[in-house]
Design goal:
Strand content: 5-15%
Radius of gyration: 26 Å
Distance between the termini: 73 Å
Number of helices: 23
CATH class of the largest domain: Alpha Beta
Number of domains: 2
CATH topology of the largest domain: TIM Barrel
CATH superfamily of the largest domain: Homocysteine-binding-like domain
Length: 629
């Protein structure tokens, strides 16, 4: 049912409207492999795409999107399908129209091109013309089948979305929804605040402006809370279902439908008229939003407030000489440190800008307070940060002990071995091997996620480096001295399988274990009991909360974190100013309980607020409950 632009704006601005959820998530659940060209399924398996549409219509969606997010030449070219733009997009509208019963509207979807091809971000005349041409080709194909409007989504840069809106407006007078996808709450990747970006999009020809992807419900809620919404403008919100979580070969998201129900309540009350879902959302999430639209579900008191293949080694011909130890800079052993008293390591994230002053000041303060090692994450959550190798080298030069995380995501085997050899030469021998969050959910969603190895496979390979043998089997003349840490998440659904995998990691060569942060004191006894025979130190993670919003975000949206109802209640009773104080009190209680079972503590610093973890380090050092081995 095609409406005029004015009618559509009025509908969104003054009603509660429900969008659909993720297409790829459901297709994957139906058995479609992750690296498939989902858009091509409109040609080869149209019944699958239609089934997804029908499930969202049945769940209560008022607007459904065509399966054409990367249906432009830039996206299809990755699968050698750039010549099928018209076929795929026309078929996609036809499939969606068949599923759109009653008054459900079909919008043709166009996704960002710059996100897939970062090399285009020069914004010169040639690049803009190329971008505009690709958008125009896809839009014209969609418009041939007469959708009810166009939906432009997952644009991190305002400049690119303005170009897409302008291109669309030159081709049609149908309604246009324009969704930005900020990496930081309230600000686009090209540095424009939403208070400036939204009016520019309206001026360029968008009828509804909004946010989708990258952020979960909490992040999008915060973005809108910072704005004064115009009653004459339609706004949209399509958050991810929290953050991606990996458990073995399975992937899932953390935000449940009840959490989305609260989010929808808050958005509609704020004046955001169109609410749907992006990555990880399912018909269950949309059904929860529709129930809010229909007034059948009250808002609860919790949640949003104003959650490869194995690598084969080959041996070179002939016998290896025994690898000789190399004369290296002084280095400390974390494993030996755990031999007496309480060992404390503290995570301090490298900054996302080139200003490292606060990081270095924090590291010095933590070391002075008694931290044994400072751990540095490796572009966690896919966000680009200053190289942890560079910062670790600085810490070492300043007399501190760094522990460097290494993700399997960013480097192929060549880069990974080179990186490890560089760490060895710098005398940095404490490493934590992690899988790494997929890049598609970080700053550069078009970047490749390599994953040549799993963290378990990489552990075994690093142990070969300790024997002086390269990944290829070549002799390195010297042996490295790495002590390898591994991560453990006790919050997964299949906890028995998680413990079995942990045993395999230790068997592969892990020297110590770091757990995800624990927010339920009852878990310490179970973890101690089930890890006592591992034969390696276990560092239990503890992170101070800073606010009620922080607690609910971690619980509902961050993989691997489960905050107890008791702690959620405690944090929910205080205002933002008292949040840090209560968070510290909770963290100290958790430390007291942890020290009854463990002598190794892993503190995680939130948002570079190192004064919090400094206080916790001092508390541990002064605690009478330290477990003496």
């Amino acid at each position: 049912m095609t409406a005029s632009r004015a009618e559509f704006r009025e509908w969104i601005a003054h009603n509660r409207v429900v969008g659909d959820g993720a297409m790829a998530t459901l297709l994957h659940q139906m058995g479609v492999p992750v690296r498939t060209c989902y858009e091509e399924l409109c040609i080869s398996k149209p019944w699958l795409v239609e089934q997804v549409h029908r499930e969202y219509v049945s769940a209560g969606a008022n607007i459904i999107q065509t399966n054409t997010f990367s249906g432009h030449a830039a996206g299809l070219d990755r699968y050698q399908l750039a010549d099928r733009v018209q076929d795929i997009n026309r078929a996609a509208v036809d499939i969606a129209r068949k599923a759109a019963t009653g008054d459900v509207r079909v919008f043709g979807t166009i996704g960002s091109i710059v996100g897939l091809t970062p090399g285009l971000m020069t914004w010169d005349a040639e690049s803009k013309a190329k971008l505009g041409g690709a958008f125009s080709e896809q839009m014209q194909a969609l418009l041939l089948e007469q959708p009810d409007g166009l939906l432009l989504e997952t644009f991190a840069d305002l400049n690119e979305l303005l170009l897409a809106v302008t291109t669309a407006r030159e081709l049609t007078n149908l309604p246009i929804i324009a969704n930005l996808s900020p990496e930081v709450v309230g600000v686009t990747r090209d540095g424009v605040h939403l208070v400036e970006a939204f009016p520019k999009l309206i001026e360029a020809g968008a009828d509804v402006v909004g946010l989708n992807c990258r952020l979960g419900p909490e992040g999008i809620a915060r973005s809108y809370a910072e704005l004064s919404l115009n009653e004459t403008v339609g706004y949209a919100a399509y958050p991810n279902a929290g953050m991606l979580q990996r458990e073995g070969n399975e992937v899932s998201y953390t935000a449940n439908p009840d959490y989305f129900s609260n989010f929808a309540h808050d958005m509609y009350q704020l004046g955001v008229g169109l609410v749907g879902g992006c990555c990880g959302t399912t018909p269950q999430h949309i059904r929860a939003i529709a129930a809010v639209r229909d007034g059948t579900v009250p808002r609860s008191t919790s949640g949003i407030a104003g959650k490869p293949r194995p690598i084969m080694h080959r041996e070179v011909e002939g016998r290896h000489e025994a690898a000789r130890p190399e004369s290296l800079p002084n280095t400390s052993s974390l494993v030996k440190t755990t031999g007496g008293g309480t060992t404390v390591i503290v995570e301090l994230d490298p900054p996302r800008t080139l200003n490292t002053d606060k990081f270095l000041t924090g590291a010095k303060a933590l070391t002075a307070a008694g931290a044994d090692f400072i751990t540095l994450a490796d572009n966690s959550l896919g966000h680009v940060r200053v190289s942890n190798m560079a910062l670790a080298s600085q810490l070492k030069q300043l007399g501190m002990n760094p522990l460097v995380h290494i993700a399997c995501r960013d480097r192929n085997l060549i880069g990974q071995q080179s990186h490890l050899m560089g760490l060895h030469v710098l005398g940095i021998h404490q490493i934590l091997l992690v899988t790494g969050d997929p890049s598609r959910f970080g700053d550069l969603p078009g970047a490749s996620s390599v994953y040549d190895t799993s963290s378990m496979e990489l552990t075994a390979m690093v142990k070969r480096l300790n024997e002086g043998i390269a990944f290829s089997g070549q002799h390195l003349k010297h042996a490295s001295k790495f002590e390898v840490g591994t991560s453990f998440n006790p919050h997964v659904k299949n906890v028995d399988r998680a413990y079995e995998r942990l045993q395999k990691k230790v068997a592969a060569g892990a020297d110590y274990v770091l757990t995800q942060p624990i927010f339920d004191a009852r878990r310490f006894e179970e973890i101690a009991r089930r890890t006592k025979d591992l034969g390696v130190p276990v560092f239990v993670g503890i992170m101070p909360l800073v606010s009620s919003r922080n607690a609910y975000f971690l619980h509902n949206e961050v993989p691997g974190i489960d905050v107890s109802d008791e702690i959620l209640h405690q944090m929910g009773e205080v205002d933002s100013e008292a949040g840090e104080k209560v968070g510290l009190r909770i963290a100290k209680h958790l430390i007291d309980e942890a020290l009854k079972h463990f002598s190794s503590i892993y503190l995680i610093t939130p948002f570079l607020r190192y004064h919090l973890t400094v206080e916790l380090v001092e508390y541990i050092r002064s605690s009478k409950n330290q477990l003496v081995k």
